[in-house]
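Hi everyone,

Forwarding the result from last night's run.
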Amino acid sequence: MRETQNSKILTYLAEGNTITPLKALKLFGCMRLGARIWDLKKMGNKIYGRTVAVKTRNGIAHIKEYGLYLKGVK
C-alpha cells in the first residue's frame, strides 16, 4: 500500500519534529501543508501551529510551523 502525504507528515511529527511549508515541500513534495494539517486535525490528532520569523534575502518573513502534542510532554 502506498503511503500518503498525511501519513508521512504524521509520522514525521510523531518523531518529535516540527514542520514548515518549505520543509514539507522538500521532504514530501507537499505544496499544501495547511490542508494536510487540517486533514490530520480532523482525524483527531492534536497538532499545534505557531508563527515563526525567518530571515530571507529580502528581510524577515513570518511562516507557520506545526508540531504534534506528544503524550507526557508539556
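The CA atoms of residues 8 and 26 lie 13 Å apart.

Cheers,
N.
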